[in-house]
């Protein structure tokens, strides 16, 4: 242990309770608003998916006196816990949500819980209150991920949002509820007993449930702690506590939020995706797009003349899928992503329809792909690269390499492109008044007296059938 025995959890409880809006910095406010806007957009888009529909149908079987809005559902409400669940599922249903380093999806586990909870409080929180609770939720995740060097790499055994995400949701919910330091400690302890989800469920419809469960169970943990339920007060201090998930667990105390305190988000921004797939796909797509541009410049127009495609990528079994048979497998396939970019000069929302996945030209090109894992290509979102090498039947060879894709924290999306992504996603579900209203509120969130109008705008839906909304998914332009 690197910290004083049994003081780590106590320090987290104190920080969660004592951080206030005066601690928020311009950088944290700016980055948090970008994360919130992006999360709302991908969540609204995700309400078009089959996995969301199944989660919603299941959740509607549970009744509650308290009700919270389902995003993109005109007049549709659920209990706060199940609203957090289905909205969290929507956020991750297409793997389009933000990614952090060390690897996790920080926003999807926190924002659905906060908005569901805010709608039930007797006094509506201000925009600054929401920003503070959101920042606390992401901060807790960021600090927990730094307890392990193993967490620096692309995950192999468990999905990080199911571990640190539920803790972040509990922390954020506890903050919005105004819990005491001791109650915040118990919120974390209770949440820890809902942590964990195996990576074997990546590339399936179950993976989005990891985010939904994290949002729901974290909210429940804070509510139970408020009622006096107690857990292990040193849950973060022990290898048998949160340490069960890491072989090199080294917890450290949360610094006192006084002078000199610095948020993790100030040092480490998030990556915001341009298309709905695992983050690793963005490197290989940018490299493949560069190869395609070189082929076109040399006069090659027929990709049927490709003899071989070599992908140099980091080792990771769950994103090495040679012949994807479902949209979820395709979102986790280096091979599919590279071949789609080579054929179409883009990867977009519509790329993952079964019509696109099963087309003969793509299937033929996939048979020509070979994957290599160079020793210097580390499975870390901060260090990895992807190279694409194409050899033509005439012997011509074209190569391109991507070290940092557009949207990565080292090369963040412009505000214009971020807003463009949000509008493209949200407009599949909301009316123009609805998505423009959401955009205006989030842009000025720190000045907003409450969150009532945000909930109203999130339910201003297009009066069309689900069939039309599903059809919209193939029409969203790529952000290249």
Automatic annotation (TrEMBL):
InterPro entries (UniProt xref): MmgE/PrpD_sf, MmgE/PrpD_sf_1, MmgE/PrpD_sf_2, MmgE_PrpD, MmgE_PrpD_C, MmgE_PrpD_N
An annotated Gene Ontology molecular function: protein homodimerization activity
Chief location: mitochondrion
Transmembrane segments: none
Ranges of residues in domain MmgE/PrpD N-terminal: 13-252
Domain of life where this protein originates: Eukaryota
EC number, UniProt record: 4.1.1.6
SUPFAM superfamilies, per database record: 2-methylcitrate dehydratase PrpD
Key words of the record: Antimicrobial, Immunity, Inflammatory response, Innate immunity, Lyase, Mitochondrion
MmgE/PrpD C-terminal domain ranges (all copies): 275-438
GO biological process, one term: innate immune response
Pfam families xref list: MmgE_PrpD_C, MmgE_PrpD_N
GO cellular component, one term: mitochondrion
Family note: Belongs to the PrpD family.
Function (record text): Cis-aconitate decarboxylase that catalyzes production of itaconate and is involved in the inhibition of the inflammatory response. Acts as a negative regulator of the Toll-like receptors (TLRs)-mediated inflammatory innate response by stimulating the tumor necrosis factor alpha-induced protein TNFAIP3 expression via reactive oxygen species (ROS) in LPS-tolerized macrophages.
Subunit structure of this chain's protein: Homodimer.
Protein name: Cis-aconitate decarboxylase
Origin species: Esox lucius (Northern pike)
Highest classification ranks of the organism: Eukaryota, Metazoa, Chordata, Craniata, Vertebrata
